[in-house]
Amino acid sequence: MANLHAEASFGLRDRRHDALGELRVLPDEVICSILENLSPRDVARLSCVSSVMYILCNEEPLWMSLCVKKANGQLRYRGSWKKTTLHLENVPVKYIESGRSPLHFDGFNSLFLYRRLYRCHTTLDGFSRDSGNVERKDGMSPEVFNRDYDGKKPVLLKGLADTWPARTTWTIDNLLLNHGEKALRISQKSVKKMSMKLRDYVSYMNIQHDEDPLYIFEDKFGEIIPELLKDYDVPCLFQEDFFNVLDEDQRPPYRWLIIGPERSGASWHIDPALTSAWNTLLVGRKRWAMYPPGKVPLGVTVHVNDEDGDVNVETPSSLQWWLDYYPLLVDEDKPIECTQLPGETIFVPSGWWHCVLNLETTVAVTQNFVNPKNFEFVCLDMAPGYRHKGVCRAGLLALSDDPSLEAEIVDVCRRDDMDFSNFRRKEKRMKIREEDDMPQTERTDESFQYSDVQKRDLCYDIDFLATMLDEDRDHYNAPWSSGNCIGPREMREWLFRLWIRKPEIRELIWKGACLALNAERWFDCLLNICRFHKLSHPTDDQKLPVGTGSNPVYLMDDYVVKIFVEGGLENSMYCLGTELEFYALLHEFSTSLQNYMPEILASGIIYLENGSFTVISWDGRGIPKLIADCNLFPVKYSEENFPFGLWNKKQYELRRSGTSATDLACPTGSSQIWPYVITKRCQGKMFAQLRDALSQAEIINLATFLGEQLHNLHVLPLPPFSSKFSDVPQNFKDSDSFMEVEPCDSKISLEWKIFFRNLSNKKMGVSSHLTKWGDPIPDTLIKRVDEYLPNDLTKFLPLSEDDHNLDEIWTPMWIHSDIMDDNIQMESCSGNSNYNGIALDEVIHRGSSNGQRSEDTHGMSWRPSHILDFSDLTVGDPLYDLIPIYLDIFRGDTILLKQLLQSYKLPFMSRGASQYESEEDGKFRRLSYRAMCYCILHDENILGAIFTIWKELRQAKSWEEVELAVWGELNSYNHSS
């Protein structure tokens, strides 16, 4: 009001009322937030609307936000963010460099814009906090660190980097001189990957005036500039890292080179997967603020998605927090803080909130690690569900007013001699609430004290946190959080490798496995199955499920036990039922394929009832009463020989393909019933374990073997077609979306209709599906995917010029659909093929990284012996089977693909040229086009594999370019040659 009176006295009129019209009711920060969500061209147009809109639309922070959202790949700063964005928009240079002076208007002021301008131009000379309350220690021994600090509290450590060459060589000038042309990743609030040449970044640092400047945060610096790895060593206090058992390309990002100017930094966060971290500063000064686990900083909001547990943190920039929030804190609510000086190393324990502000240009190196002190917390963070993740980050404030939990918390407090009232307060800052039918964990802005360190121990006790796990969430079925540091398959591989390589801490590893994947339940299932079939008791080595598959699999001395879990009970029954039907069919026909498949010894169903397990045998024929009582399956199929065989499985897949992702997130069927199968254990090793140790001749031999076995599989007759399948379309007649994609050609056989209808259902949501998968799939291609895919997938079927139906010749075939590197068994042909005599630590050994034979395979040669895991059997286009083989086993090697095709010797259906065929329809003659469409519509992220193998295709302008680069070899295939 004072400003308005002052303007009136000088005869100035407030522009805001007239210039913004109806928008004047919105605060400036809201208008600026809206502008950030527009395109650069729309913002440019809006700047012409009025004088105030001109001011708002020409703010550098706005154009920085627009540029960060637009940029993808390598970025070059052009002196201002508006110019940089216009270059990205391909605006002609003459308009960008027009030289017109900016317009200035009186009669308008904005406290919001002023504060932002102040933050952009402030200096931080007075921000140092040398008298912080983080302990500084020099010459600490590992024993003292483990006893007093690891897993407990932060500490600043001197002397750990005194002998590093990086202390003198990692200056900005030296790095610029030696590595100026290297592109390094930039950290900003963007899902896209941005990088800048170091030379360009240093130029940007020297001229920028940003509130939250771009920040080099490169986790691949060891690959980009390998010599930097020689300039420092992991300090002795932090050398134990459980992720070391993974191959370098499997482990999550764990080390970063960090370079940033004054005002840059990391806003409030907890390190990924609740890992601990050390950070050594080499140049400059950093100010740190930290809170113990469960103490959410003022101004920070935590959201936890109740579907997959993904955690999203909304936080102001580091500088804004120190300027706007820190002064509001009473002394007892202030963070633990310090100023880190060059040569000092700070340790941040697992789960601690921390915020970093660079007081001047800084260079640092940091690494995250997992050790015995935080291992269980890392495993807990990977467990499915969301409530435990909210409690890990927000403490008891993340809990709703749940009386049952209240009693449990009181009990824990009594055991620990604590006061419950200190933890369970009515004025919670975190709560579970429902918003737009999406319950989330949210924090309000009220405050609470935590002066006693013990107060945080209750909400960060691993046993207490484990009570927050959702017992109904099955690790193998629950959605995997995109924020998890590794995928579910990699997590299972990691735990198994730890189990084998670190037997001295198996008790700890077992606790972690029980948290992450409910290993105790699956082991109880195994024990009861072994007892029922009078099999030997599993040894301690065999306690954890092996491999990276989607179901628990146990390797015993002479046999393998697989428990079907993926997709819920109904899906599991069809997977095992189809596999059992297939094995029965093999015995009716003389085919060599059965010589290369493991023998089935037994199969059945195990279920949990009233706290105890019961096991029954089942060979795939008929419906067991236990299953019939579930009322999940149509009674009319009970008279069939294999009610869960191929054709009924296809009906189930059709139902599922029309189901929303939300419904699929909670699979139908009881979570206490699991089918299982026991097969004879094959001698040798999986191809995945030998890949790097095999010679080129051995891999060529594998390609020949796979072509021959695909031939045998694809010529095997299908079981009799179920007449009851004709009822399936009735399930969809009320669905408009289904009618849009239903193949309309009445001459197409029902078998092919089943296959293409399933693909058509997937095609409807393909854009959003690919967007969810995201990087490395290029955004430009995702936007064009609908125009690349055919409107009518049945055009892939070969029809003659007179439109005569040829599906009597081209019929669907059995397809394995999952022949990957862990489903190929290799045996030694050098007189040492006894798999049972090989130590388990060698079983999981994948060979050396340089391609030489590893010690355990030296002097041995290997040949393929078995194809494993036929539970994903289905029927369709045999071209489908090439996708996992070519991309996973061959890694895109066209020589191996050609070798496979030479031994395959079967034609793939394809359309011949037709005088009635349009130029547009000519693409249907290309096998490469069909294969590429199948990749796009695949249930798995096949495109992620493609753009990882062929990195250059990330710059592709069209799907045709990708298609021909990946699958072009198929177009020259002639089965008779």
UniProtKB/TrEMBL annotation:
Domain JmjC: residue ranges? 223-386
Outline the extent of the F-box domain. Answer: 20-66
Q: Does the keyword DNA-binding apply?
A: no
Q: Name one GO cellular component term.
A: nucleus
Compartments where found: Nucleus
Q: Which Pfam families match?
A: Cupin_8 (PF13621), F-box-like (PF12937)
- Cross-referenced InterPro entries, in alphabetical order? Cupin_8, F-box-like_dom_sf, F-box_dom, JmjC_dom, JMJD6_ArgDemeth/LysHydrox
The cofactors required by this protein are: Fe(2+)
A GO molecular-function annotation: oxidoreductase activity
Would I find Membrane among this entry's keywords? no
Q: Which UniProt keywords apply?
A: Iron, Metal-binding, Nucleus, Oxidoreductase
Please give the family membership noted in the entry: Belongs to the JARID1 histone demethylase family.
* PANTHER family linked: ARGININE DEMETHYLASE AND LYSYL-HYDROXYLASE JMJD, TRANSCRIPTION FACTOR JUMONJI, JMJC DOMAIN-CONTAINING PROTEIN
Q: What is this protein called?
A: F-box protein
Protein source organism: Trapa natans (Water chestnut)
